[in-house]
Write a structure and sequence with these properties.
Chain A: This is Actin-related protein 10. Chain A: Pfam families: Actin. Chain A: It comes from Cryptotermes secundus. Chain A: InterPro entries: Actin, ATPase_NBD. The complex is a heterodimer of chains A (375) and B (505). Chain A has 375 residues and is of the alpha+beta class. Chain A has 3 domains: 158 residues, Nucleotidyltransferase, domain 5, CATH 3.30.420.40; 103 residues, ATPase, nucleotide binding domain (Nucleotidyltransferase, domain 5, 2-Layer Sandwich); 78 residues, ATPase, substrate binding domain, subdomain 4 (Actin, Chain A, domain 4). Helices cover 20% and strands 28% of the residues of chain B. In chain B, the strands form 6 sheets. A 6-stranded antiparallel beta sheet of chain B has the order 2-1-22-21-16-18. In chain B, strands 6-5-11-12-13 form a 5-stranded antiparallel beta sheet. The longest helix of chain B has 32 residues. Chain B is elongated and about 100 Å long. The chains are: A alpha+beta (375), B alpha+beta (505). At the A-B interface, strand 3, helix 1, helix 2, helix 5 and strand 12 of A face strand 5, helix 2, helix 3, helix 6 and strand 11 of B. The complex binds zinc ion (4 copies). The site of one zinc ion has 8 residues of chain B, from loops.
């Protein structure tokens, strides 16, 4: 039965994978949403402990973690054999070389996939809009990464990255809660995440400037595991996301990233970029996030630092046809649903040829060439 | 079944380098090699619903997005929901004074008490489904984007193909008049010459899409968020949201039941010879296998019987029980583990062998391609280059030495009847009483001496290893070998003998 799938003119449906630091999105090319969004972690078969796939100490360990993790993705979630099937990998342009190499090795050598197409997440996100110019800000788990794309080409020298994302929010939330619920020693990360998602929000700029003066939103009593009570003061609910917007010593925040990136771009690009902002990533789904971002941008524009350098009037945001946390995946699924998958993929044969080279970094350079996508 | 409960006591070294208990390894009867879950090729065999045990052909499973048409999951706790029926009475349309009762069906979860009425789903008049299916609101938009990019991609591809022809430009100019270029390009690309998306109109229009329009307004916070108390029971958890990636409902009132995700039966294939080492029966209710080449049926099994107290540097007696699972007599010998160099050599031999096999396969493929052109027409059917992983070195640290018995042990074949026959056991084996403690049918207990090393204190247990050499009768008939063949096979075995007692000074 599985034999017949490849017969005829329809090729086996390619799979699209977007491995995030916290969540992995996995599904089929050409579909409107991922089949699953699962935590990027595995239960170690020997120690029975849950381990994050991206917390690896060596490439060998990463190899084993990926084998275990991807096996589950194929056989528990997608229910297809990986062998001789194409793969689209949605990756960040800042993805470490060691990671992408190990991932390619796992897919080619362990799962025997027929080809891999690496697509940069910021770039393919534009496929979900049908435009070819946008300033793409991805607020994920570890960091917020911004790359402007102009006429289908990433403006790489203007990229920005800041460790202002879910991890920072969650560690701030954890610290506040431990402070208040002094009888608790620690909270598991999943509890913190649940509290964040279900009770916290991004407050407005006006309130943020006078947090001490305003009436606090109602407190919440959270039952951890159904029994233990955790008190979440309204103030905490309102302020945990402030770590994203507070300017640090270098006067950097999520909002300044956008303006700083625009400043680094040539003048004729600035207006189109400011009027084509695309915010993606799970953290951008927090209630009030975009409203705050827009207010911050308008506010910062009045500040001397930017007023003198930017003659912008408006900022416009795109609404992609997907939830923010899988926009990049959807871009990969659209891109991978086209002929590009046969013309631009790295085939197993090409991989075999190159991986026999002593310096395998050469190949990654080669892939990068192929990755240059014009939309 | 001690090995099931304590899987890490006696571990066998798989050909790929992993260490697994005997219950977790395969024995490929074609390669005569041990294989394990890590080094075999897993394949999806059949799809089924774990709730109703309905079997789906893979094409249908694909069509239904791996979901069961009949069973639904509770969106709240993700368990299966059941259909409940009630009687409701409505006015008789013919006679307003009378009422008629009819059955109405709704969904209810027996685990968390969620019901379809909670989210305002109307009751159904039939018990079997008819529940409204939710569509991704963006589906149409996404498919038009997809069409758009498909044509863009096709164009790019055609341009590329054209560039490849540049040296023969004059010819192309000529054929261009007749519109042949595109047809050639398509032929080269292996695409059908007629039909398909955007192919009818070569040069012209890419299906129109309206590019997304960025807006100045963004979703703002609900006005009452600063004053409204939060009822956590009304807010979904992240796992509830992510269970439905395309919808990710934030409120419990938006949770709709989802069709149950299917499960699969898997078959395992030896990567080296492409024979199945395990293939389940198709019927989802069956727990039997069509093919099950488990090592448990082919490789002598070792269990620990007892072990004397272990003291660092002192010799203790470890008694193991050997069991011959095959229908043929076997001779077991114990050898010390190979040195690092020998080990490396062995692995290199293994890799060499694999390469040879690969080359053979390629040759065979070439000749078959000459004979028929199936694999050219359908590239997905032809064998692809295989570049599976190379075996790895065993990654363990021994914390004990072993003194192995010098003489070999003969084990008679398995005889199921003998299991129930306690009378007059007579053996004609010349056993060395220093080696064999006792024997019973196809089993024998063997003495080994263990000397824990200093490192055992730190590791917390005494791990010893040796090579077990056993004779195996290969009954697999091949083209050039019809008769059963006796072969000597080796497997590295690692035994965790337990903790040491008392600190040594
Ligand atoms: Zn193995
Ligand atoms: Zn079912
Ligand atoms: Zn339930
Ligand atoms: Zn085999």
């Amino acid at each position: 039965m599985p034999l017949y799938e490849g017969i005829g003119l329809t090729e086996k449906q390619a799979v699209v994978i977007d491995i995030g630091a916290a969540y992995t999105k996995f599904g089929f090319a050409g579909e409107s949403g991922p089949r699953c969004i699962v935590r990027t972690e595995i239960k170690c078969p020997e120690t029975k402990q849950v381990k994050k796939v991206l917390n690896y100490s060596s490439e060998e360990e990463l190899y084993d973690l990926l084998v275990e993790f991807i096996h589950v993705l194929y056989f528990r979630h997608l229910l297809v054999s990986p062998k001789d099937r194409r793969v689209v990998i949605v990756e960040s342009l800042l993805c470490p070389t060691a990671f992408r190499e190990t991932l390619a090795k796992v897919l080619f050598r362990h799962f025997e996939v027929s080809s891999i197409l690496f697509v940069p997440s910021h770039l393919v996100s534009l496929c979900t809009l049908g435009v070819n110019t946008a300033l793409v800000l991805d607020v994920g788990y570890v960091e917020a990464i911004l790359i402007p794309v102009f006429e289908g080409v990433p403006v790489l020298h203007a990229w920005q990255a800041q460790p202002r994302a879910a991890e920072a929010v969650q560690s701030s939330l954890k610290a506040s809660l431990l402070n208040i619920n002094s009888e608790k020693e620690d909270f598991p990360e999943s509890t913190i995440e649940d509290i964040k998602v279900r009770t916290c929000f991004v407050t407005s700029l006006t309130r943020a400037t006078q947090l001490e003066a305003v009436d606090q939103p109602p407190d919440v009593v959270y039952r951890e595991g159904g029994s233990e009570i955790v008190h979440i003061p309204g103030k905490v609910r309102e302020t945990v996301y402030e770590v994203l917007f507070e300017q640090d010593n270098d006067q950097m925040s999520v909002s300044t990233m956008i303006l700083d990136a625009i400043i680094k771009c040539p003048i004729d690009m600035r207006k189109p970029l400011a009027e084509n902002i695309l915010v993606i990533g799970g953290t951008a789904m927090a209630p009030g996030f975009k409203a705050r971002l827009l207010d911050e941008l308008k506010h910062l524009l009045q500040q001397p630092k930017y007023a003198s350098r930017l003659a912008l009037k408006t900022f416009k945001f795109h609404k992609p046809p997907a939830k923010e946390n899988y926009v990049a995946w959807l871009g990969g699924a659209i891109f991978g649903g086209t002929d590009m998958i046969s013309t631009r993929s790295l085939t197993k044969e090409a991989y075999v040829k190159h991986s026999s080279l002593p310096d395998w970094a050469d190949l990654s350079y080669n892939c990068r060439e192929e990755d240059k996508i014009s939309l | 079944m001690a090995f099931l409960l304590q899987p890490d006591i006696v571990r066998y070294n798989c050909t790929c380098g992993s260490l697994k208990p005997i219950s977790r390894i395969y024995f490929c009867r074609h390669c005569l090699k041990i294989r394990c879950g890590y080094c075999v090729c897993h394949e999806v065999d059949s799809h089924y619903c774990a709730n109703c045990l309905e079997n789906l052909p893979s094409s249908e499973a694909r069509l239904k997005k791996n979901r069961c048409a009949a069973c639904l999951d509770c969106p709240s706790c993700l368990n299966t929901v059941s259909t409940r029926s009630t009687n409701i009475s409505t006015q008789n349309p013919d006679d307003p004074n009378k009422t008629v009762t009819r059955k109405a069906y709704y969904l209810a979860c027996g685990f968390c008490r969620w019901t379809s009425r909670d989210v305002g789903l109307p009751d159904q008049t039939v018990a079997t489904g008819g529940w409204p299916e939710r569509e991704n609101v963006h589906a149409a938009r996404i498919s038009s984007l997809l069409e758009h990019y498909k044509v863009l991609a096709l164009r790019e591809r055609q341009e590329k193909e054209r560039k490849k022809f540049i040296p023969r430009r004059s010819y192309l100019h000529f054929s261009d008049k007749f519109g042949l270029t595109a047809m050639m390009a398509r032929k080269r690309a292996g695409l059908p010459t007629l039909g398909g998306v955007g192919i009818k109109d070569e040069t012209g229009s890419i299906p129109d899409i309206i590019p997304s329009e960025a807006v100045e307004e963004v979703d703002s916070l609900p006005a009452d968020i600063y004053i409204k108390p939060v009822d956590l029971a009304q807010v979904t958890t992240l796992s509830q949201r992510l269970a439905q990636p395309e919808f990710q409902p934030e409120l419990v009132s938006d949770l709709f039941p989802a069709h149950k995700h299917l499960m699969i039966k898997r078959s395992q294939r030896c990567r080296s010879c492409e024979h199945n080492v395990s293939k389940p029966e198709y019927n989802p209710g069956s727990i039997k296998f069509k093919i099950q080449l488990a090592a448990y049926y082919h490789v002598p099994e070792i269990r620990i019987v007892t072990c004397e107290l272990l003291r660092i540097g002192q010799e203790s007696q470890l008694i193991i029980r050997l069991c011959n699972p095959t229908q043929h007599q076997t001779v077991i010998q114990f050898l010390p583990l190979p040195s690092a160099e020998e080990d490396l050599e062995e692995r290199e031999k293994e890799i060499e062998e694999k390469k040879k096999k690969q080359a053979e396969k390629k040759d065979a493929e070439k000749t078959s391609q000459g004979r028929d052109d199936v694999s050219i027409l359908l590239p997905s059917l032809s064998r692809q280059t295989s570049i599976s992983e190379d075996p790895r070195p065993v990654n363990v640290k021994l914390t004990g030495d072993v003194i192995l018995p010098s003489s070999s042990v003969v084990l008679p074949p398995r005889d199921d009847a003998a299991e129930y026959d306690d009378s007059g056991e007579t053996y004609h084996f010349q056993d060395d009483p220093k080696v064999v403690m006792w024997r019973k049918a196809n089993k024998a207990a063997v003495k080994i001496a263990v000397v824990p090393l200093d490192s055992a204190t730190e590791a917390g247990h005494v791990l010893v290893g040796f090579v077990m050499k056993y004779t195996y009768v290969n009954t697999m008939a091949t083209l050039d070998q019809k008769e059963p063949q006796k072969v000597d096979l080796k497997v590295k075995v690692f035994i965790n003998a337990g903790k040491t007692v008392g600190a040594c000074t």
